[in-house]
Amino acid sequence: MSRPSFRELLSRSGPLGGLVLLCAVMAFLSPIFLTFTNLFNVGTQIAVIAILAFGVTFVIISGGIDLSVGSVLALAGIVFGWAAVSAGLPLPLAVAAGLGAGALAGLVNGLLITLGNLPPFIATLAMLSAARGLALVISGGIPISDIPESIQYLGSRDLFGVIPLPVVVMVVMWVITVFILRYTYAGRCMYAIGGNEEAARLSGINVFVQKLLVYTLSGLYAGIAGILTTARLASAQPQAGFTFELDAIAAVVIGGASLQGGVGTASGTLIGAFILGVLRNGLNLMNVSAFWQQVVIGVVIALAVMTDTLRRRRKR
User: Fold this and answer.
1) How would you write the chain as a 3-class SS string?
2) Tens of pLDDT along 177-223?
3) Considering only CA atoms, which of 152, 150, 154 is closest in space to residue 163?
4) What pLDDT score does 12 carry?
5) What is the topology classification, in CATH, of domain 33-307?
6) Given this model, what pLDDT does residue 65 score?
7) Which residues of the chain are modeled with pLDDT < 70?
8) Which of 13, 211, 296, 315 has the fewest other C-beta atoms within 10 Å?
9) How far is CA 76 from the centre of its chain?
10) Helices 266-285 and 244-254: crossing angle, nearest 10°?
11) What is the pLDDT of residue 13?
């Protein structure tokens, strides 16, 4: 087997190389950046976005899009808070209710796309509105407080007194995502469907079932992110996760996935989430306005999409 060329190595390691270069620049500009406290702070800040992005990775690899994950996050958090506080259910059942709400929302997305023949953009845009509305209806537009201390512990404590628990949850979800994409039949189907849906169908893949699974997984991951967000805020907020879907999609694209489908990895998505987190953290340390931060992140996303477009043109 021939060794990969320098261009191929650069293409494969582009997001990681970009992250290393970005960290070097931020470390030069701010001596605080490379401290353990700050780095773990970055990890804590991106944990929810990364978990959302892992779910979106499944969708984008299979050639779809999910705009609803931010709203589903809020719905899952509110359902969990209502079940634990208002309904007084035992904590495991309350957690199951929150995760179930996320998975159910994802399943509805899948049904709208497969049975309803709606474009993924339209189906998930509708769920974005519906899930946010349901969160507001259930909560009455008011945050649900008095969240059980055991859940608050998840969002505020450290493992061994060093590693924040949100970072631990993020790493666990990354490992699970890697396993699904690399070692399961469902993961191989996602790449096949994203590469060429008709060819995947002709090869015997049940595209209907696999698409339902993909969007259900995305909703389930949003449910996990919703419970983690509730733990971090110590309350269930109906407005939680607002515009998080944009950051999640950005992390996937910056990490090297193609919006055309068939390309993407869990590790690339994690790197993309870290790039967003490092950018925001570094710009905050340099006292850059939040408005300019959005401009910078927008430029980075545009460059990532342009890079993917150029890479695909070279392959043709």
Assistant:
1) CCCCCHHHHHHHCHHHHHHHHHHHHHHHHCCCCCCHHHHHHHHHHHHHHHHHHHHHHHHHHCCCCCCCHHHHHHHHHHHHHHHHHHCCCCHHHHHHHHHHHHHHHHHHHHHHHHCCCCCHHHHHHHHHHHHHHHHHHHHCCCCECCCCHHHHHHHHCEECCCEEHHHHHHHHHHHHHHHHHHHCHHHHHHHHHHHCHHHHHHCCCCHHHHHHHHHHHHHHHHHHHHHHHHHHHCCECCCCCCCHHHHHHHHHHHCCCCCCCCCCCHHHHHHHHHHHHHHHHHHHHCCCCHHHHHHHHHHHHHHHHHHHHHHHHHHC
2) 999 999 999 999 999 999 999 999 999 999 999 999 999 999 999 99
3) 154
4) 54
5) ABC transporter involved in vitamin B12 uptake, BtuC (1.10.3470)
6) 96
7) 1-13, 308-309, 311-316
8) 315
9) 15
10) 120
11) 59
Which pLDDT does position 228 carry in this prediction?
94
φ/ψ (deg, to 5) at 236: -95, 120
